[in-house]
């Protein structure tokens, strides 16, 4: 079976509150009205360091590409060195953790199978914040759990470098892009910041053309290895779209033996069902804290945290406990593990959740201030996320990275039975503890 969690796409759509629907932007006097684009978009080509990305020339004004610098994936050794030479600030790490703890209970009910990426949303909002001003920026910064946004772009740039890595059995990749209406006025400093700090490629398109949606879908599919293929039926009202796509594929540090997999009963929210369960008996980091039970399952570079509290909604764990406190309670034990295989996808509209975090003016055409993006009035119309996850004997495909080593000479005086045959919570973390995915399995 193909193993994977993955990834996802976050989309922020900006609309103008003054451009009438169906009105074609007027071309500059020195330019002719462009011809309709060909259905097949051109390949991305690296942007030249100079001039500014928005000043580059192109023969096709309906589909212009200014790609971010093409950076090859780092090896695990290179990323480990980067973590030492250019560490993320403690404030950034804690802010993203706090964002996960605050946002997840507002989005996930714990009553169905869910998979949400706090980090992908965080990066997309960080991109939007660089073009927000006044109260609109203050709302986003507050939602991001930050006190000082001065080095936000630099810190997000470090994250982009860390999560573009090749492992021996997989790949982790973050990608950003901004899609702008051709011939609409955008601030060059904003575009340059997204290109330099967020490694975002710029696409200038005609959103009145049906090809624009096809081109965006193609970009998303490419960045997620075909796992997410959104359809954009009508883009005619769009002015600008921000994407963050996160792809992750890693193998378990100790793969499960396929011959031990067997069907058994899962006692879910909607009653009992039969699932295929993975089985192992090995030493590992066991979590036991005030009735919460779980473990830390390592990949080659990242880790998956599994948590449950018998008889309780799995989301109550995040509401009532700090994830850091739970993982800090872990101790080495011999664990007889029983874990179900699963695979599912999700689609989320994140607007209501973000309103719960205090973001309201950014969605209001009369109050939003994105003058750092364009002199024309813009507001956020949609914030969407699609995700997919699959877990099997070999591992998971998703966005995350972290390693945990177990001492082979330790004396283990504890043996536990740990069966995830009832609703449970999972979190996938990077080495710094960045929450790449969080979700629940309830049926």
Q: What does this protein structure show overall?
A:
- It is a single chain.
- The chain is α+β, with helices and mostly antiparallel strands.
- The chain has 2 domains: 64-251 and 345-389, Antithrombin, subunit I, domain 2 (Antithrombin, Chain I, domain 2, 2-Layer Sandwich); 258-343 and 390-441, Alpha-1-antitrypsin, domain 1.
- It is 23% helix and 32% strand.
- The protein has helices spanning 76-85, 90-107, 118-129, 134-143, 152-162, 188-196, 211-223, 315-320, 323-328, 351-356; strands at 4-16, 63-66, 114-116, 164-166, 171-181, 200-205, 240-251, 262-268, 271-289, 292-298, 303-308, 331-340, 342-349, 378-391, 395-396, 415-419, 424-429, 435-441.
- Strands 1, 2, 4, 5, 6, 7, 13, 14 and 15 form a 9-stranded mixed sheet that branches. Strands 3, 8, 9, 10, 11, 12, 16, 17 and 18 form a 9-stranded mixed sheet that branches.
- Helix 6 links the parallel strand 5 and strand 6.
- The chain is globular.
- The chain starts with a strand and ends with a strand.
- The model is unreliable at 1-8, 17-61 and 397-412 (pLDDT under 50).
Shape: globular
- What proportion strand? 25-35%
CATH topology of the largest domain: Antithrombin, Chain I, domain 2
List the total number of helices.
10
- Give helix and strand order, one letter per element, not per position: EEHHEHHHEEHEHEEEEEHHEEHEEEEE
User: How many individual domains?
Assistant: 2
What is the averaged pLDDT score?
81
């Amino acid at each position: 079976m193909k193993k994977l969690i993955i990834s996802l796409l976050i989309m922020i759509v900006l609309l103008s509150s003054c451009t009438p629907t169906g009105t074609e932007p007027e071309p500059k006097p020195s330019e002719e009205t462009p011809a309709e684009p060909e259905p097949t978009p051109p390949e991305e080509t690296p942007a030249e360091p100079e001039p500014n990305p928005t000043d580059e020339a192109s023969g096709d004004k309906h589909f212009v590409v200014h790609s971010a610098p093409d950076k090859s994936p780092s090896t695990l050794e290179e990323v480990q060195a980067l973590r030492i030479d250019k560490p993320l600030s403690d404030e950034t790490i804690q802010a993203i953790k706090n964002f996960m703890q605050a946002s997840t209970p507002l989005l996930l009910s714990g009553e169905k199978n869910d998979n949400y990426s706090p980090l992908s949303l965080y990066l997309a909002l960080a991109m939007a914040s660089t073009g927000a001003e006044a109260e609109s920026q203050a709302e986003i910064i507050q939602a991001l759990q930050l006190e000082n946004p001065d080095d936000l772009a630099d810190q997000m740039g470090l994250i982009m470098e860390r999560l573009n890595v090749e492992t021996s059995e997989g790949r982790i990749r973050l990608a950003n892009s901004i899609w702008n209406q051709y011939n609409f006025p955008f601030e060059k400093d904003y575009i340059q910041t997204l290109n330099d700090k967020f490694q975002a490629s710029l696409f200038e398109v005609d959103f009145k053309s049906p090809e624009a949606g096809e081109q965006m879908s193609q970009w998303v599919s490419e960045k997620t290895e075909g796992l997410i293929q959104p359809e954009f039926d009508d883009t005619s009202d769009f002015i600008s779209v921000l994407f963050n796509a996160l792809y992750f594929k890693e193998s378990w540090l100790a793969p499960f033996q396929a011959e031990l997999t067997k069907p058994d009963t899962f006692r879910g929210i909607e009653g009992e069902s039969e699932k295929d369960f993975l089985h192992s008996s090995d030493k590992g980091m066991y979590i036991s804290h005030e009735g919460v039970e779980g473990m830390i399952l390592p990949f080659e570079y990242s880790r998956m945290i599994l948590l449950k509290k018998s008889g309780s909604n799995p989301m109550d764990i995040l509401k009532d406990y700090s994830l850091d406190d739970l993982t800090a309670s872990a101790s080495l034990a011999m664990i007889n593990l029983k874990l179900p295989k699963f695979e599912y996808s999700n689609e989320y509209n994140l607007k209501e959740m973000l309103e719960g975090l205090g973001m309201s003016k950014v969605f209001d055409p009369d109050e939003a201030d994105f003058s750092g993006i364009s002199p024309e009035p813009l507001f956020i119309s949609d914030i969407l996320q699609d995700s997919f996850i699959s877990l099997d004997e070999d591992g998971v495909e998703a966005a995350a990275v972290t390693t945990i080593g177990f001492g082979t000479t330790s004396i283990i005086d504890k043996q536990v039975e740990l069966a995830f045959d009832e609703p449970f919570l999972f979190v996938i973390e990077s080495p710094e503890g960045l929450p790449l995915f969080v979700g629940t399995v309830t049926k």
